[in-house]
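Listing S7. Sequence submitted for prediction.
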Amino acid sequence: MFQRIVLLLLTFAMIDCPDVCAESDDALEGKPTPIIFDTDITGDCDDVLALAMLHALQDRGECELKAVTISKVNPLAAPFVDAVNTFYGRGDIPIGATRDAQHRPSLYLKLCKTRDGDSLRYPHDLLSSKDAPEAVEVLRRTLAEAEDASVVIIQVGLAANLADLLDSKADAISPLDGPALLQQKCKLISVMAGCFGPTLGKPRHDEANVVNGIDAMRRFADQSPDDIPVVWSDYRIGIAVPYPRESIARDFSYVPHHPVREAYLLHSGPNHDRPTWDLTSVLFAVRPDDHYFDLSKPGRVVVDKEGFTEFHPDENGRDRLMEMSAEQAIRVIEVQRALSSQPPRQAVSR
């Protein structure tokens, strides 16, 4: 009787989100989810926390970070990502950088240049973002080498790189053009972008990942293959689950210097609980079945010329919005803290 009840519960769970929860099979088989992390890691520090989360989840055998692509232009963005990856013992992860997107200054990328005596505090190989291959090349190569319908792409920034991927043609890397390559290799795109309801005392909000690259986000929303689910974590989700300042003060002291803690402090200081916009997209991408979030009914996301986003319900739609109750928010805050601050298996720091 007990076994029948469990089977029924599992069946209902699969029926509730059959397309988006395709990761369940891999989870049951213990297979790590292949991840491409597309980030605008320059301005805000939540990208750094999100990257740390991915390394922690890989240490736990839940995902495998196949590549990091950068969607804003800053000469230190790729070196900083390389430094963080090296800190977590994965300095060989491919990194790609856009050459054609918003140029963005940063308060924390300079950490990759910090020295203690004659040595870099955070060792890395890349000296400039210009030394990294173009992001679209890395995206195409990573997808081409992957198993069919296996890759989850996490886009937490401008849509410049994915829009350019969709515009890409067949080449020496793959005989498939961008849409066909994405359709064959990708099983889910987890996006942090947009705002789909009132916030900050306004009926709608022009969210930064959209307004700083409106054309790219419109191309992504309009041209992404219809049969690859796209799950959107909007502005209001990250606001509701701030990262606790107590964690920055206490949880990273297992090494004398930690790039995540130092980046957070340079950006937000010690007395601010920063919204975790990008972390929520990571959490859903790797653990879609763990009920940290609910999902809306299917629909279609539309980006207008001013950068505002709208969601139109459509039973055949590709897009779904993340939703979160107050009870779920408590769980999300705790698990994001635990994963972001989880000590790596082998930290590299001086």
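Caption to Listing S7: primary sequence and predicted structure tokens for the chain studied. The domain at 22-340 is CATH 3.90.245.10 (Inosine-uridine Nucleoside N-ribohydrolase; Chain A). The CA atoms of residues 73 and 100 lie 7 Å apart.
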